[in-house]
Amino acid sequence: MPSKTCTSGHTGTIAPLQRSAPIVDPHHKPAPLFGHCLNRITSLRERRIQMRQPFFLILIVTALSLLSTFNLSVNAAQPPEPVARIAALRGKAVATDTAARQRPLTVRAALYEGDTIVTGPRGRLQILFSDNTIISIGRDTTLLINEYLWQPDKEEGALHTEVKEGIFRVMGGKITKAAPRNFTTKTPAATIGIRGSMYAGVVANQQLSVVFQGGRGIVVTNDFGSVEIRKAGYGTHVKMNEPPPPPTLFSGDEMDAFTDDLTDTDTDEDDAENGTVDDSDGSDDSFDDTADESDTSQEGEIDQEIFDTATLPPVSETDPLIDTSTSWTPPTQGITLFQGAIAGSSLLYEDGTQETINEPADILANWHNHKVLGIVYDSQIDLAMPVFFFGDIDGSTVSNIKVFGGGGIQADYNDPYYDQVSVVEGVGNGYFMGTDTGTFYFSGSGYDYAIEPSDQPALSEWLVEGAGIEVKTMPAPAGSDTWIGYVVGISEDMNNIDANRRLLTGGMVLGINKDTGDISGSISADDGAFSLNNITVGGTYGSAFIADNLFAALLGGGSTPLKEHGNYLVTGPAEEQFLDYATWGYWEVAYSDGTQQYHNHVPGAMWLAGKPTATTDIAAMAGNNLTGNYSGTVKGSKIDTTSPTQVSKISGTMELTVDFAMLGSTAAINGDMALNDGTMFYIEAMGTAGSPHFGGSLLGSGISGDIVGTMYGPDAGSIGGNFSATNGSNLTYQGIYGLNQTSLGELIFQ
Q1: What is the DSSP letter of 332?
Q2: Within a 13 Å sphere around the CA of 689, how many CA atoms are in the beta-carbon half?
């Protein structure tokens, strides 16, 4: 029988399509349900483009860090209680109080009831009210705070503003939940009433253009009539002394007009071209103030004077800023990808330092099993581990959100407080808004915990909000599977990482229910002298399955009990998945052996798993005297105790040939592995007749070790496992490998 060549496949598949053809037919690989999309979303450039969507203007990088500053003392000549503060500012702006006294505005400046805020030709600012309402205004805009009242203990309040000229955006806060009838924006042409929503508008030549951007809806009213707008992206253009026209869908150019004027994307060169570098319109010198221009251009920079009083709201105070009650009915099937950003602030306990957070994020909602998984990327450090969160979809809300991952090493090695490995953990909630799955909102809070100390104290606290816009919806997998896999790990004594390192290898079993989105299983690994056995994956600790190449689970339990923080398992980046019928990822655990504190962590702690090939397939291929050829990827670590950097990443390639009829014989599986440092290994392995599992030896020049693996998918379409090799003294290699079938045919003897 002639050799059969398999068709090309894709990485990052969700659910392998089951073959109905005879096993001697060409090996069929499924088209990806997720691969192309997830490969694309990792482009930071594309995420930046998505962030230009209008609603991202609500993500105030510094606003959350200012929540504690409303009670700071103010000048005795001003009212004693500010109602809002400037959260972000570019260019120049002034406020005029009810006594006609004018003052320049800077970041963190207080605003009072009765203030009129005016921006210059290059001015843009964002206002954070004490009920979490956010109002953004653009260039040459005049905004009056007519009335403000917020009594959180009574859940009573009112916010009435007036825009006389210019561009504005409003994101309703807690007042819109407690008393939406008392929240309005007045303009010369009409008044906008809110129903727990977000909207943007332009007032020019006594006319109003307003667009609804999410929430329950808005009502635009004047003496001649009113119109209600409930569909995001729709708005109306109102002229003086005329009734508001029915809502229409705003064009891309109209939406861009709001975005371009409210975002801070232009440069001084752009302004120079427009003739506005001096920030003066040539006729009004009210902006010729003495405020430090460099200060006004620093969005949300926190100065030393508020360190002592700075604090962030506790975890329990992470309610979304917008009313979550909507009439939207979520889909029942498919997976929707949302792209957006997470923004907020963190507070370091040691010295009160506050830092802003503003990172791109991908959020995926599986409507079939009602799970959400979010990935927040570190755009500053290429190799940093993302922060993850998952939760349960209940109608339009997302509950039981758990945040974990990321963390890192504090930067200052001269100060022991900063020289600590940490992990991010927290809680949150979220919800979907719009007439379809168009927008996802998220808020969360938590802590950065030190990994090493036995009590794992919190080093800092953080508070974030985020949003994402729908990019694409794809089919969702269904059913349930049992996956078999392998792990490797590098556990380091955090008091002496180069002396007491433990190099772990082992296995894992995962039960994956794609219909409920739950994962349960266990991991066991050892180094020949010490064991981490029966670590629980998911189960009561929590998990979220979105797709075969996209899931996460928290870890706990074990024969050596794990610490409270820093234990999780996640899939690797979609664009780095290299198997058609299996998946790889990372895992981290923190534990104590009773004497020392250990941390098993990325990038050296990896896993690989999938659904094993059915024994009937193995037996049929053996009965047909088939031989398979495989080629693929190696990922792992090189540990050289004589090197200044003892642990380094390695990669490589592997080629294998499998004689299915001779699986029970020595060298039924043979091939070679080539690592990127020039090291070569010859592979000899064998299995058991009819079984997809095998084991064998690695043989190199002065170095040798073991390799184990499993065949995955129909007709053994993929092979994966782990390996470990040492020279007996200073050098060890260990890692995972994954190969895809390149040909499958009958072995012909000449």
Answers
A1: S
A2: 7
β-partners of residue 90 are 124
Task: With a cut of 50, list the residues of the chain below it in pLDDT.
Answer: 1-79, 264-327, 382-383, 409-418, 435-437, 749-750
Whether domain 4-33+495-519+539-553+564-746 has CATH 3.40.50.300: the reply is: no
* Whole-angstrom distance, CA of residue 296 vs CA of residue 264: 13
- Please give the CATH number for the structural domain made up of 326-474: 2.40.160.90
174: which DSSP letter?
T
Domain 80-296: CATH architecture, name and number where available: Sandwich (2.60)
Residues 483-539 pLDDT 10s: 999 999 999 998 888 888 999 999 999 999 999 999 999 999 999 999 999 999 999
Tell me how many degrees the CA angle 284-285-290 measures, rounded to the nearest 5.
150
Domain ranges of the chain: 4-33+495-519+539-553+564-746, 80-296, 326-474
- Measured CA to CA, the distance from residue 280 to residue 111 in angstroms comes to 23
Tokens describing residue 117: 């805020």
Which strand (E) or helix (H) includes residue 320? none
Same topology, domains 80-296 and 326-474? Answer is: no
Sequence letter at residue 737: Y
In this prediction the pTM is: 0.64
Three-class SS of 555-600:
EEECCCCECCCCCEEEECCHHHCCCCCCEEEEEEEEEECCCCEEEE
